[in-house]
Amino acid sequence: MNGRSHPIEHADEPLLWVLRDELGLTGTHYGCGIGACGCCTVLVAGEPVRSCQVTAASVGERPVTTMEGLAERGPDGQVTALHPVQQAFLETPLQCGWCLPGHILCAVALLNRNPAPDEAAIAEAAQPNLCRCGGYNTIKAAVARAAELARSS
């Protein structure tokens, strides 16, 4: 989990609740509970996964990245640098932000596959995630900005 091993007490529970309740990683949001909205998205072995739809046990030893695992941290655990996608979304704020885990983690996966995505690729990567506030144009702009930031760093 975010580069560290953690003992899991309730491995038969949905990964979402293990992250939030056992590990205190509340950056992964509960939205619909049926895998439709994307608020609970995490990366499992680099691929977006709806954490409300998989058990912690089914993940096994594969690496899991949550919102908390994107930023660089110093030895004291304090954030030293945001991931370029986090920085871009900070520069391009949305109304409520509830959907951000899904959009940010899908953008990270996209940029890992394609560091210079065009507008169509950005829209396709964002498509599985809902935004209650209708901020889709802002989200696409933030992902394009994240690609710029990643290429310049």
TrEMBL record:
Q: Which UniProt keywords apply?
A: 2Fe-2S, Iron, Iron-sulfur, Metal-binding
Molecular function (GO) terms listed?
Answer: 2 iron, 2 sulfur cluster binding; metal ion binding; oxidoreductase activity
Domain of life of the native organism: Bacteria
Q: Does the keyword Isomerase apply?
A: no
Domain named 2Fe-2S ferredoxin-type: residues: 1-70
Keyword Metal-binding on this protein? Answer: yes
Q: Which PANTHER family match?
A: BLR6218 PROTEIN, OXIDOREDUCTASE WITH IRON-SULFUR SUBUNIT
Protein name, please? Answer: Oxidoreductase
Organism the protein comes from:
Catellatospora bangladeshensis
